[in-house]
Design a protein that fits this description.
single chain, 482 residues, mainly alpha, 22 helices, disordered N terminus, binds beta-D-glucopyranose
């Protein structure tokens, strides 16, 4: 077996085993791993683009169809609602038809939804298009991290799933950019129609990749599973890897929804759902949504000036800080990133709260307060981008045992979309009722809770195989029951 890895690693008799087991991104099996990465990138980009594009398109849709604020709310929120239902369906589809075919299905939904929106002759059809694309986003947000986590080698798993978050942020940035450029002409149909591109790319990248080895073994296709592992992880410890998956599946053969509530799966569910909620209630989407007002306060008066500034202060910061997670998630681990990032988010929120309090109690000029607010907003977004953003998707994709992974991820992801839906709906009301200073203080309160809860409940999973993680959780559960 040592010969097979010789081409990518300088092997000596003293080379430790764990070093041999380290996969190389550009080695013999690098092509397949690169494709797995491409699947993660394209599905994340579709997620981000569809979530981000509506901000700039709404004004022009309004001008054409002339709808009221209720309909405006529907158009905005139906992607999130569609995603909630898509996430619920995604797990069942991924188990029944495979992770790969489920992603292909989501890709078709991206393309169809984008076209329906771009060609919509009426508001009703526009809303239908938003729902179709949202459903696709939800399905993909379960299937993509699952597929990637099951296909990537343990030593690179965090980086691969964080790559998915990087793609979400690139998608949001691309949406902001197309909003900015196309807003000169007001061509909203092109803004929403461009979402077909990541959909088409997802189709192209997903077709050639092999099925995830765990899914193949779960449906009895052992030979194909061996081939899949050979392609994506190389031949080092090939038999061990297959046997490990088989043993895990054999020890927990049934998969009912209620299986999520027993043993190691129950602990996994608690961690995944907890993190899914905290990712949203600490306010990321509300802050992104609110950024234009912060920018207006800082002196960016026109819509186009705000769009340009938010491209940098929100979009670029979000993308760049995600690289920190990619660099460190498999080296430092999940926990240190989460704790450091949430501390940074807390600083940003307290800063926003205090600055807004100062603004409301003094007659200070808007511009100084606004400029400070931009800094706090950037601190918040950067801290989210290297912690709760990527690490939550990583942990959700790795904590569940294989037999209930799809169901568990479905539940956690649907909860994540549900929380996003409620918070974005409530945020403008919270600002109306309590004012912005108290609203940011409430988000800071949730962040303190998130910090404490993570500290107490989230274990380190860096470098462990998915089977080792399952074992760790099962042992903990058994010990707790004893
Ligand atoms: C969250 C999204 C959020 C995005 C921002 C993702 O991890 O799930 O709700 O909009 O990060 O980058």
């Amino acid at each position: 077996m040592k010969e097979l890895v010789r081409s990518t690693i300088e092997v000596t008799d003293n080379t430790p085993d764990d070093q041999l087991a380290q996969p190389r991104i550009f080695g013999r099996w690098g092509l397949w791993l690169t494709l797995v990465g491409a699947v993660s990138l394209t599905s994340g980009m579709a997620f981000g683009y569809d979530q981000g594009v509506i901000g700039g398109a709404l004004t022009f849709m309004q001008a054409e169809f002339g709808f009221d604020s209720f309909v405006e709310g529907l158009i905005t929120s139906w992607v999130t609602l569609g995603a909630l239902f898509g996430a619920l369906a995604g797990g069942t589809l991924a188990d029944k038809y495979s992770r790969k075919r489920t992603l292909i299905f989501a890709a078709y939904l991206f393309v169809i939804g984008a076209l329906v929106q771009a060609l919509a002759p009426s508001v009703e059809i526009l809303i239908l298009g938003r729902f179709i694309i949202g459903f696709g986003v939800g399905v993909a947000s379960v299937a993509a991290p699952m597929f990637v986590a099951e296909s990537a080698p343990a030593a690179l798993r965090g980086r691969y799933v964080s790559g998915y978050q990087l793609a979400i942020t690139i998608g949001i940035l691309a949406a902001q950019f197309s909003d900015y450029v196309l807003s000169q002409e007001g061509t909203w149909r092109l803004m929403v129609g461009l979402a077909a591109i990541p959909g088409l790319l997802l189709l192209l990248t997903t077709y050639p990749v092999p099925h995830s080895p765990r899914w193949l073994i779960s449906v009895g296709r052992r030979e194909d599973a061996v081939e899949s592992i050979r392609k994506t992880k190389g031949t080092w410890k090939l038999d061990e890897a297959v046997v490990e998956i088989e043993q895990e599946l054999a020890s927990e053969p049934n998969s009912k929804w209620s299986d999520l509530l027993v043993g190691g799966a129950r602990r996994a569910l608690k961690i995944a759902v907890g993190l899914a909620i905290f990712q949203q209630v600490t306010g990321i989407n509300a802050i992104i949504y609110y950024s234009n007002e912060i920018l207006a306060d800082a002196g960016f008066e026109t819509a186009s000036a705000q769009a340009g500034a938010s491209l940098i202060a929100v979009g670029m910061v979000n993308v760049l800080a995600t690289f920190v997670a990619i660099a460190f998630v498999d080296r430092l681990g999940r926990r240190p990133l989460l704790i450091a990032g949430m501390t940074g988010m807390l600083v940003g929120l307290i800063g926003l709260s205090v600055t807004n309090l100062y603004e409301s109690t003094t007659n200070d000029t808007h511009t100084i307060v606004g400029s400070l607010s931009i800094i706090w907003m950037m601190v918040f977004i950067a801290s989210f981008a290297f912690s709760l953003g990527p690490v939550v998707w990583t942990i959700i994709s790795e904590v569940f045992p294989t037999n209930v992974r799809a169901k568990g991820m479905s539940v956690a992801t649907a909860v994540n979309w549900g929380a996003a839906f409620v918070l974005t709906l409530l945020f403008p009301d919270l600002i109306d009722w309590f004012g912005s200073s108290i609203t940011f203080a409430i988000l800071a309160g949730f962040t303190v809770l998130a910090l404490w809860w993570t500290w107490a409940n989230v274990p380190e999973t860096k470098g462990k195989s998915l089977e080792e993680i399952s074992e760790m959780f099962a042992d903990d559960a058994a010990r707790a029951e004893a």
